[in-house]
Amino acid sequence: MLQPADPQIFLIDEDEIVRDSLKVLLESHGVQVRDFPRGEEFLAKEGASRAGCLVLGHNRSIIEGLELLATLKRQGAALPVIFIVGGSDAVTKAAAIAAGAFAYLERPIEEAALIRTIRAALARKSGPCASAGDIPVAQPPAAPRADSVLG
Length: 151
Description:
Rossmann fold; five-stranded parallel sheet
């Protein structure tokens, strides 16, 4: 069972189906996930003082994500931010990284790549909520051996 000091992942995505799917995926790796449909709701309920990692999915407007990142920086947040976008260009990616995003990932994204990125973001952040080993990458089940199947 997770303790209060375990990593907290904050997930923002306006698409409820995507948000719910990501939440289930991340929780299956043993982390606490708080999800929000919009950045404003995250700021109102959590504020910028929380430790953990922010996973920010935006399909409609990367500008909203960049504005949220700027707000967090103004408030002194040290929360690593991972953008997950439906598609973009090099200029948009460069703008997000220049604004302080930890990572910028394009959909579709593989589970292992997302978990590795979150693990790296948590490792960068110091404090009790940020241990790189806290999110294990799920290993696929081993294929049955021929002799065990054939008996």
